């Protein structure tokens, strides 16, 4: 509420993983009161929220350049690293996040030291109208660039995808990449969970029931393998 909603206003939807940080009674009650639709990624499918996962990879690589050897001071540099990222042109939009959000480039000490700073003699209404017009045009371009980036990514993803369909009652093996302590990952069988398809939600997700689970789970299709082949339609 303090850091996101009161700073950036209400979102229509919030997409998060199944972690208790985002899926708990307090959060769900807050979403309900504010009218926010909560979306949840499927189990062990970080690609569902690929943008933030890619940002985490970038963030970790940036922090690795500045933290001390003991790694205990990472929080000291977090805000500085985030500011540097927000001031850097994004590969998908072509502009920095700071510029897209604020309508202007960020200022830093080098801008104050250099001569010939831009003098703004516009009135407040004139400046406001200029910023609004600039932001409208910029947001249109950002949307077009994001659509192009999404189509490019989808083209490469679809080349490697083989459509698979499961039906209610099918016995399937569920991929579980968790490494068990004391066991060699190269010898571990990651499809040990044997479950049953309860319901097909859409082309990508299924509700799976497994005796070793406390409750049914929504699993992405690429984490499933048919345990028993479908009967042949021919005698």
Question: Could you characterize the architecture of this molecule?
Answer:
The structure is a single chain. This protein is of the alpha+beta class and 235 residues long. The chain has a domain of 56 residues: Roll (SH3 type barrels), CATH 2.30.30. It contains seven helices and seven strands, in the order αβαβαααααβββββ. The chain has a five-stranded antiparallel sheet, with no helix packed on it. The chain is elongated. The model has no long low-confidence stretch (mean pLDDT 88).
Task: Please write out the topology.
Blueprint: H1 5-8, E1 13-16, H2 25-34, E2 37-40, H3 50-63, H4 74-86, H5 97-102, H6 109-113, H7 124-159, E3 171-174, E4 193-200, E5 205-209, E6 217-220, E7 224-226
Parallel strand pairs: 1-2
Antiparallel strand pairs: 3-4, 3-7, 4-5, 5-6
């Amino acid at each position: 509420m303090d850091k996101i909603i009161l700073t950036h206003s209400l979102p229509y939807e919030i997409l998060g993983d199944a972690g208790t940080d985002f899926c708990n009674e307090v959060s769900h009650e807050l979403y309900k009161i504010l009218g926010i639709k909560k979306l949840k990624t499927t189990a062990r499918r970080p690609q569902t929220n690929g943008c933030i996962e890619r940002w985490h990879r970038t963030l970790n690589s940036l922090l690795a350049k500045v933290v001390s050897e003991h790694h205990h001071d990472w929080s000291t540099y977090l805000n500085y690293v985030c500011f540097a990222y927000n001031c850097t042109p994004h590969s998908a939009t072509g502009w920095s996040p700071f510029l897209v959000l604020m309508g202007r480039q960020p200022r830093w000490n080098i801008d104050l030291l250099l001569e010939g700073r831009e003098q703004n003699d516009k009135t407040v209404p004139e400046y406001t109208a200029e910023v609004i017009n600039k932001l409208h045009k910029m947001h249109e371009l950002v949307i077009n660039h994001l659509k192009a980036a999404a189509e490019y990514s989808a083209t490469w993803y679809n080349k490697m995808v083989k459509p698979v369909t499961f039906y209610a009652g099918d016995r399937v093996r569920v991929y579980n990449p968790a490494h068990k302590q004391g066991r060699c990952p190269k010898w571990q069988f990651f499809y040990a969970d044997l479950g049953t398809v309860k319901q097909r939600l859409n082309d990508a997700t299924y509700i799976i029931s497994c005796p070793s689970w406390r409750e049914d789970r929504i699993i992405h299709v690429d984490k499933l393998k048919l345990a028993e082949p479908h009967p042949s339609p021919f005698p």
